[in-house]
Design brief:
- The structure holds two protein chains of two kinds.
- Helix content of chain A is about 40%, strand content about 10%.
- The radius of gyration of chain A is 20 Å and the shape is globular.
- Chain A has 13 helices and nine strands.
- By secondary structure, chain A is an alpha/beta fold.
- Chain A has a four-stranded parallel sheet with strand order 5-4-6-7, sandwiched between helices. In chain A, strands 1-2-3 form a three-stranded parallel sheet. A two-stranded antiparallel sheet of chain A has the order 8-9.
- Chain B is mostly helical.
- Chain B has two domains: about 100 residues, Alpha-helical ferredoxin (Fumarate Reductase Iron-sulfur Protein, Chain B, domain 2), CATH 1.10.1060.10; about 80 residues, no CATH class.
- Helix content of chain B is about 60%, strand content about 0%.
- Chain B is built from twelve helices and no strands.
- The termini of chain B are far apart.
- The chains are: A alpha/beta, B mainly alpha.
- At the A-B interface, helix 2, helix 3, helix 5 and helix 9 of A face helix 7, helix 8, helix 9, helix 10 and helix 11 of B.
Chain lengths: ~325, ~200
């Protein structure tokens, strides 16, 4: 199988730890997947909200680039990108008129898509191409103290004509991966596919915050000490916005949110630094301590020394110039 | 009696637009007419509590051509595109795509939205892609805050509130201070031009 890799915009900016851990794990699993050269944004939810043809053409350029590079399968780690690339791919392959229309739009860009690639989410590739047995056999760390809430979100399971690699209402792939590497999985069926609000966190923040709160408190009530996710938008909301949820609703949550490749990498014995764990906003230190894995919360800005001081419940960042 | 009915929420068919349903389907909302009003969509919707009309009602209003009411509703801006409704619909109505189509028609026609932040967000998003070919989160969040909070004290309050997270992201190397422009940005410009041309030819 000749793979191509589509990181998407979040993975090279605010959610770098997903890119770092996914690449590290794919390499450790022996899967070669070079980036699609000069890839562009898939349009996310905004493309659909602005113009239907734009929402077809932006992903189609990436499909055409991958096809020209002779790839057979695109691996997309972001659920939104996966949804857009796979959805447009289905539409174009299934409807000649749409294919002609999109190729008319792409023609002035000197590109043409002929329907020659398929698109898969990295969760699908790990679960079904690598397989749980392989992961079990290659687990070298004891993760039995982790009680995991697997949060799938929306677009790895819905809509089923685009995302069709897991069970719709009670997906199992991340559950099985976590179990295969020896972690405990809590009963989280209530929330594993509940929506986190996605991009609504900007245009309709009050609504998104309530959804995020329910998902986080659900994990806490289920007894989880760690949440795993397969999507940068979900991660942004559950990890980076966790403090805002605590402040807004006066609740205490304090649960680290890991990308599933970060968990997998730990299981396979990779160094935390190779998995971008220092980049998570809610510090994963507590669970790494639990697992007996050494971990330094490294913060670095050139010319500035930054230290984290802890005083009981309070945490303070100290900046020193020079 | 007739008076009472008129004063109640009567649907004025003379003010409805019979072409609206086609317009929605052309904008990507497939199979709207297949809906038989079971309400499964509203039952599973995670944001229905924040809507003025339920998804089922929105679909029925599209059937009836109640364009003004639909396009000025809050519901279309509260939809998070989670696809629960579309997934569960027993009739194959692309409800989530209908919601996106409605957003795009409202934005195209410059309607005054129930949630003004919606169009600001989506428009800025695609404008940034046209400029660089990729998202630049810093520009998106700053522009969004600037344009969606007209009052200066609110703008500052938002920036201050989000500053600690911004700082944390910066120190963790996750805040890009400059955009990443793709090499063949001309191709993106050509795509946008052609999409605009097709829209104009309609």
């Amino acid at each position: 199988m000749r793979y191509a890799y589509y990181p998407g915009c979040s993975l090279v900016a605010s959610e770098k730890e997903y890119n770092i851990s996914t690449k590290a794990v794919l390499e450790a699993l022996g899967i070669e997947a070079p980036d699609i050269e000069d890839w562009n944004c898939c349009g996310a939810t905004a493309g659909h909200a602005i113009n239907h043809n734009l929402s077809l053409a932006l992903p189609a350029r990436n499909l055409a680039l991958a096809e020209d590079s002779d790839a057979q399968t695109i691996i997309a780690p972001c659920s939104e990108c996966f949804h857009n690339l796979a959805g447009v791919n289905n539409t174009l392959k299934g409807d000649e008129r749409e294919m002609r229309k999109v190729n008319t739009i792409l023609a002035d860009a000197g590109l043409e898509y002929r329907g020659g690639v398929e698109v898969r989410h990295v969760l699908d590739v790990v679960a079904h191409e690598v397989g749980y047995d392989y992961l079990r056999e290659h687990t070298v760390r004891d993760l039995s103290k982790l009680r995991i809430a697997p949060y799938y979100g929306c677009l790895v399971v819905r809509p089923p004509d685009v995302a069709n690699f897991d069970r719709l209402e009670n997906p199992q792939t991340m559950d099985n991966i976590a179990k295969a590497v020896g972690a405990q999985v809590v009963d989280y069926a209530d929330y594993k596919t509940a929506c986190c609000g996605g991009a609504l966190i900007l245009p309709k923040e009050d609504v998104a915050l309530k959804l995020i709160k329910n998902i986080l408190l659900g994990a806490k009530r289920a007894g989880a000490n760690c949440i795993i996710v397969p999507c940068p938008m979900c991660h942004m909301n559950l990890d980076a916005k966790q403090a805002l949820v605590e402040e807004t609703f006066g609740v205490s949550i304090d649960i680290p949110v890991l990308y599933f490749p970060q968990l997998l990498g730990l299981a396979m014995g990779l160094d935390p630094g190779k998995l971008g764990l220092e980049k998570n906003i809610v510090s994963p230190k507590r669970i790494l301590d639990l697992l007996g894995i050494e971990f330094a919360e490294e913060l670095s800005v050139p010319g500035v020394s930054i230290t984290l001081e802890e005083e009981g419940q309070k945490k303070r960042l100290v900046f020193e110039l020079g | 009696m007739a008076m009472a009915i008129e004063e109640a929420e009567a649907i004025r068919l003379d003010r409805c637009d019979p072409d609206f349903i086609r317009e929605v389907e052309e904008a990507g909302g497939l199979n709207v007419s297949a809906c038989y009003q079971c309400g499964t969509c509203s039952g599973g919707c995670p944001t229905v509590w924040a809507m003025d009309y339920t998804p089922r009602q929105i679909i029925r209003m599209v059937h009836l051509g109640m364009k003004d009411e639909v396009l000025s509703s809050m519901s279309i801006w509260v939809c998070s595109s989670c696809y629960t409704c579309q997934t569960r619909c027993p009739r194959g109505v692309h409800i989530t795509d209908v919601m996106s189509a409605l957003k795009s028609i409202a934005i195209r026609e410059g309607r005054t939205p129930a949630n003004p932040k919606g169009p600001v967000f989506y428009k800025n998003f695609v404008d940034i892609i046209e400029q660089y070919g990729r998202m630049w989160e810093l520009e998106l969040s700053l522009k969004f805050t600037h344009k969606s909070e007209p009052e200066v004290p609110n703008k500052l309050a938002m920036l201050l509130r989000d500053a600690p997270l911004g700082l944390a992201m910066f120190t963790k190397g996750k805040l890009a201070l400059a955009p990443h422009k793709i090499l063949n940005i001309d191709q993106i410009k050509a795509i946008y031009e052609n999409v605009r041309r097709m829209e104009a030819e309609k």
